[in-house]
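=== RUN LOG ===
request id: a7f3
mode: sequence -> structure
chains: 1
length: 420
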Amino acid sequence: MLLWIFNRTPFLKKSRHAKAILLIACLWLFALLTGGFASVLRSAVMFTVIVTGKYYFKQSSVYNSLATSAFILLCYNPYLLWDVGFQLSYCAVIGIIAFQQFIYRKRYFSNWLVRYIWSMVSVTLAAQIGAFPLCIYYFHQFPNLFLITNLISVPLSTIILFGEILLIIIAAFETLAGWLGIGLSAAIYAMNAVIMFFDSFSFSVLDHIYANMFTTWFLYGTVALLMAWWMNKSRRVLHFGLGCLAVFAALHAIAHIQLQQQKKVIIYNVSRQKAIDFIDKKQFLFVGDSVMMKEGLQQNFHLKPARIYYQASKQVDSMPSLRQANGYYQFYNKKLLFMDSSAVLQVPDTAIAIDVLLLSHNPKVDIEELLQSVKPACIVFDASNSLWKIQKWKSACEALNLRCHSVPEAGAFVLDVDGP
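=== RESULT ===
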């Protein structure tokens, strides 16, 4: 939008330097106006380098500029490499750079409005091509109506964005600013209402899609090679693309077979909460705090991703393979004991051998005294415990050469159950 304005401004359209400086200034002004959030600053750095390369280095490749911006950001914070937003933004931009012009040139429309809509469609498709394998990997879903919602939300969000900037400029004129604010509020409400309307359709999202690192890499390989074939019509590239697709399908088939045989216990990392899933094939049984049983942010953020990853789609209240009594659980050949602040452990004549001892909600126990009652192969401290108490227990375990796992420090504990 800014480039379109600058190219039609008489004293700017012939000055590359002025356009570059103004574009970069506007980028960073916008970044500051929005509060300097990490995602906005990341985009500002990315496009600053791209603009600099385009206007000051005639022979520069946009891919080099993109790589330079990524290098700068990773020098500042190497952990960005594992940031989902960082990965998605760069994959989407690479998709736009690589495929947008090719898709756009596939169709020509004489009508300017249709041409503008087709331009938005081509950008959306190119960005989706670059980003959708990662979206499936991280979120295990695909938005079926992304094209329709983008055609509505992108123009509206652009109008809202420039309207907000105008609102800042005319803030001193209360009456005018008030009317503009009402209009912008209505536009935001309308945009959200439209998105929610499309989201309400049962077919709006294809979810519970299985993906792991290997399938994601081969999906990217398939997409890249098939797009390269479409653009260059090379039979060799097509063969490689179909080969990637065959490997991708084989990996999915193998994963499906493995998922049909899986037996797992997952102790989740949920702050101040106890949350455990027993997974048997595609069924799961939840044990934990009542707040985690309710549909909402906690469940969607902490539990649902793992259930989708393991394709555990059916929740059950009981399992033939799971027996429980007084905090003791036997899941196939694995024995577990869950202890919380209300637990009272009886001292038997002989210590009971168990596979996992889970301590939750800060039980008043001494590790050495516990060993008189149970002999655990591993002691797990979940995120419902205080960190200072976990450190105390860990020190005791180390002194006794006991294997232990701190969920808030090491992440979720996953126990694979073998055998009948």
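=== NOTES ===
The mean pLDDT is 87.
The first strand starts at residue 141 and ends at 143.
=== END ===
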